[in-house]
Amino acid sequence: MDKQTLAQKLAALSSAGESFENGLRVVSNGVEPPILTAILTEVDMTVLPRKLSFRMNGSEISLVAGGRRLRGLVQASKDIKGVMGVIGKSVSHDAPDVVDGLHSIIAQFTATAGQMTVVSEDPDVMGGQSDAGLTAQSLADHWKVDLNPEPLTPMMAFARDCGDLVTAWVVLKDKSENRTGGDGAKLAVLRDTIAEKWSTFSDSVDQLAGDVGFICLNDALGEAGSVAIAKNGSEAAILCYASENMAQLHGAWGKAAL
Amino acid sequence: MASEELDALHSQFPQCETLAFADLSADMVLVTNTDAPQQREALNALCADAAKSLGKPGSPNFGDGQSDTALIATRERLTIFLRASGEPADVLCCICKPTIDVSAFLAAARPTLQKISSGS
After folding, report:
1. SS3 of A214, please?
2. What's the whole-number mean pLDDT along residues A177-191?
3. Could you tell me if the ipTM is greater than 0.90?
4. Which residues contact A89 (CB under 8 A, 6 or more apart)?
5. CATH 3.30.450.30 fits B2-118, yes or no
6. Which sequence spans correspond to the domains of chain B?
7. Domain boundaries, chain A
8. B102 to chain A: which residues are within 8 Å by CB?
9. What architecture is the A154-255 domain classified under in CATH?
10. Position A21 pLDDT exceeds 80
């Protein structure tokens, strides 16, 4: 483990910044960190054998981890399908069906993103052999998950905090796309509009709203809806929204720490 | 009278200090509320900002749709531009304090614009 990774682990292990909901530790708000990243990070920080029970939106999965490895799924709530071939089975390179099946189960669990909590307990099963399972990094590579995503910039945090008020968003840094989110079809329209017109319209944005400002254009995207632009120095968030949400969106910008 | 309509809207929303009815096809403010503090140059600039944000009729600046409402916010000022339905060159330009109730203001301002635009 290099020094930077070690420093990140120590920071994560410290109690500073942790939050709790009804006594349960909150490991993701549904967006930050991304849920699968949060699950694998918990695995990566688990040295002694533990059963990690993740709960979100009424669903629950319990995984056994130890030695910074994920050993297997031991419990899942009834709303999660396809657990038969995975539950109680050891995760290993020799069992690709279990690895893929577990990914599918976690995808079901994370489909409705929300606040996720975790409870850590002594495991009833799979608590033995210390080299059993796969490392969080190995699973992250296999599932194409970034275990150390870049921290959110203020503009990314604003786009995230807009929640249901926006249907898609793009954050630009120095006029290049930096992070996106939301509905795929609306995001595609937003990207096309940016590609076609941002280079010229950004000058108007600077003239109209200055260095730190906010612009809403109702119904500018036709059937895809309306577009808003929040500007803060070299960053800009371009948001797709429904016109009836304009006043609320303006209120959200007014409260944002940009 | 258009100025009376604008004065009535100003009385209802004193946080909106300037209300100007403009014609984007002529790039010109035609009438303002009586107490509007802006000089002619500032009103011309306001009309130019309406064209930059809403776009001229049939010529949107960002996106393919013709926007009928533009809101431009800074920490010090909120500017709202409304385009009349049926007469896309007719716009109402509004300079407000940032704390104005946007929803309530829009609900009152749009009928005012339509009245002035239709000449009723």
Report:
1. strand
2. 88
3. yes
4. A72, A73, A95, A98
5. yes
6. 2-118
7. 3-143, 154-255
8. 246-247, 250-251
9. 3-Layer(aba) Sandwich (3.40)
10. no
